[in-house]
Specification:
By secondary structure, this protein is an all-alpha fold. It has three helices and two strands. The longest helix is centred in the middle third of the chain and has 12 residues.
Length: 146
């Protein structure tokens, strides 16, 4: 499960920095590599406790968020899940398997019923993807004499 990247994060009841303070001695925690941006280009006014460096806030650290999400998937840190967020319509229900949010959008027409299937005005479909339409508006150029 190393290098897991998540598109969505489970809503939490506390800040990521608070969770880091609890899990920093956990052997399963994978500490991040050094930040790639050159030090002179990083924001010196903010600090990331997870990276132990300047550049972004600990609570905005995607590496930390990914590690926390990985631990949640392993069944750890459940006491920090904001169960009320699911009732309020925020976040995904962790009991449901998440679908890949990096899915092609709009969905590939091969996977959905097509209303335009028999439309003679559309070009023939191939097996390489959806039919693309181009709507063009043109304005004529004329001469005005006067």
């Amino acid at each position: 499960m190393a290098d897991d990247k998540f598109a969505d994060y489970t809503p939490l009841t506390v800040r990521c920095e608070h969770i880091l303070n609890e899990i920093k001695s956990d052997r399963s925690l994978k500490w991040p590599e050094k930040l790639r941006a050159p030090p002179h280009k990083r924001n010196k006014n903010v600090w990331c406790e997870f990276h132990q460096d300047h550049g972004h806030l600990t609570d905005k650290c995607f590496s930390l968020k990914d590690e926390i999400e990985k631990m949640l998937k392993e069944g750890k840190l459940r006491k920090y899940v904001d169960k009320g967020a699911f009732k309020r319509g925020q976040g995904d229900d962790p009991r449901k398997k998440r679908s890949d949010s990096r899915r092609e959008y709009p969905p590939n027409r091969r996977d959905s019923p097509s209303k335009d299937k028999d439309d003679p005005n559309l070009p023939p479909r191939d097996d390489h993807g959806p039919v693309k339409r181009l709507h063009m508006i043109s304005f004529g150029v004329g001469m005005i004499s006067g």
